[in-house]
Amino acid sequence: MAATTTTGTADEGTGMRRIGLFRTVSAGPAFWWLVLPAFLFFLVFFVVPTVSLFALAFNKSAAGVISLSSAVTFDNFLRIFTRSIYYESILRSIGIAGAVSFICLVFGYPLAYVIAKTTNPGRNTLLMILVLSSMQLDMVIRLYGLMVLLGDNGLINAMLLRFGIISAALPLMYNVFGVIVGLVQITLPFMILSLIGVIKSIHPSLEEAARSLGASRAKAFFSVVLPLSMPGVLAGTLLVFALAISSYVVPALMGGWKVMVMPIHIYQQVAETGRWQFGAAIAVVLFLTSLMAIAVYHRAAMRTTGGRS
Amino acid sequence: MSDIHLKNLVKSYGENIAVAGIDLHIRQGEFFSLLGPSGCGKSTTLRMIAGFIRPTVGQILIGSDDVTRLPPEKRDIGIVFQNYAIFPHMNVADNIAFGLKLRKKSHEDIDRAVAFALRQVGLVGYENRYQRQLSGGEQQRVALARVLVTEPRILLLDEPLSALDKALREEMKYWIKDLQKSLGITTVYVTHDQDEALTMSDRVGVMQKARVEQVGTPQEIYERPKTLFVTTFIGQSNVIDVTVRGRQGERLSVDFGDSTVLTRAPVAEVSVGSAAKLVIRPENVIIGAAGAGLSATVVSETYQGALVRYRLSVAGQEIVAERQNQAHLARFSPGEVVGVSWDPDRSEALVA
């Protein structure tokens, strides 16, 4: 969709363009002062610490040493890419984050569609509360709730054992399955919120036009609504992917340290062995992996939508 | 191409009645307008014909087919929306080809039909443009082309001119009408603009409060309004309180102040002595020298270029008169006493 509109002449009255969103930004130099507080905060509390952590990755690994030295070495990175325990965790992280993004999309899209299309204000509010309520509780608390459900003695296993459907507890936790369930639970609202806005911005008459031209409900959805909601799909999956690949708490609790993804390695290196330099190197790799995966996905998605997201 | 029958069409949302029982026959090849203020149910009616809204009660026939329960894609209709609904992710050619691709036409057929349609709407060379590169008028042409290539049985137009500026609206009005006439396609046009309805339509259905108040040719609607609403909604009218004195064939005599005047009689029975409304268009009020007709006092004169508009006080009621601004016609000034009359056939009596 046309995000950066120019002048109003062609837009007047169509009601379908997002007019003016970006127009005010160029209103004058005085406006830039408004950006300053957030910019300074971001610089001091994000850019500086992240860059200094990343710089640490190029120092020789030494337990308990945090100070930066000027002796540059690539040993830490060499180690990551030569030891299977580390490079496999890269693939595992990508795989899990990819799976979580996909599952969130499949689960989230229909719900987002229903919420976006519901005109009844009461029902709409109810559905939104449903989505947002899960975000009101702290992540750790929600994960403990999941453990009650999925544990070996948890509700599901207890029920299945009781009715004799299984003879031994199913491994629902402390494995990849548990981590994925946890991550989906945490990230699903982000996917839904990304999609709702975009689907809402697709004027209902577009779908109706497709129907009147002979498209079935499904055909109208796949040929009009879905392509036009690609910006939301893209934003949602990228957001979920970034959240999932960088999550430490979920793999720690739901994977019980058995599902070794990159953030777990980082934590172990920094907090348990005190080797900040090696932990920082893994963090750099995690960061670059995430960026690369996003770039590849973005390009692929752009190609399928004809570069018109 | 087909005619359309609406039989006792009702749509209610809970206690809210959007359309309260419409019976209408829209003839084959006719340009039929549904005219009314917003919220009168005209769009709901159109959307029921299109299949986007399922009627609560009633029947819709296109030709001899009962389409009441058919989804929109099975009705073989074409609809143009107020916002044109051009698919923004497809270029003009793909927009127009959309319906043909669904009909599994061959590539050659589609290309030929798209090229023909673009010529028809005067947009040759626009094939690769996107919606954001089109003006409102161009989008409307694309929307029409996209519909017409599928050769629908009926054409539905939902306020297609309301988003255009005035000059373009004038142009498109005649263009759409000519196109419709040359294709001979049965067309239902929804609008709140009386000017569009009168100019473009073969017949008009005036709607108010979920009902059709009157159906007729533009001339019938304008000159022989059957209800007070139709009178006041279409054009301007003087509405004067009178008392019925008696019927003389096609004429009704009514008491207006101390005088008795003649007017066209309503079809309905009227009882002597009952209150009625005398309806006269401003352009039909004749102002003459004092003594000719009813005695009136000029309240104000407003110069409007081609017209001069007078507010007159007649027997305690106000009457507005419009006169051509022509050299041979005298002008009157406020306070002047004049004579007011009208052709009885150019006035209506409506029983409240």
TrEMBL record, chain A:
GO BP term, pick one: transmembrane transport
Record organism: Xaviernesmea oryzae
Name of this protein: Putative spermidine/putrescine transport system permease protein
Topological relation to the membrane, as annotated: Multi-pass membrane protein
Keywords: Cell membrane, Membrane, Transmembrane, Transmembrane helix, Transport
Cross-referenced InterPro entries: MetI-like, MetI-like_sf
Protein family per UniProt: Belongs to the binding-protein-dependent transport system permease family. CysTW subfamily.
ABC transmembrane type-1 domain: residues covered: 90-297
One of the record's GO cellular component terms: plasma membrane
One Pfam family recorded for the sequence: BPD_transp_1
Compartmental location: Cell membrane
Membrane spanning stretches: 31-56, 62-82, 94-115, 180-199, 220-250, 276-298
Entry annotated with the keyword NAD: no
Automatic annotation (TrEMBL), chain B:
Taxonomic source organism: Xaviernesmea oryzae
One GO CC term, this protein: ATP-binding cassette (ABC) transporter complex
SMART domains listed in its UniProt record: AAA (SM00382)
Assigned keywords, A-Z: ATP-binding, Nucleotide-binding, Transport
Assigned protein family: Belongs to the ABC transporter superfamily.
Matching PROSITE patterns: ABC_TRANSPORTER_1, ABC_TRANSPORTER_2
GO molecular function, one term: ATP hydrolysis activity
Record Pfam families: ABC_tran (PF00005), TOBE_2 (PF08402)
ABC transporter domain location: 4-234
Membrane found in the keyword field: no
Name the record gives this protein: Putative spermidine/putrescine transport system ATP-binding protein
Annotated InterPro entries: AAA+_ATPase, ABC_SmlMolc_Importer, ABC_transporter-like_ATP-bd, ABC_transporter-like_CS, Mo/tungstate-bd_C_term_dom, P-loop_NTPase, Transp-assoc_OB_typ2
Biological processes annotated in GO: quaternary ammonium group transport
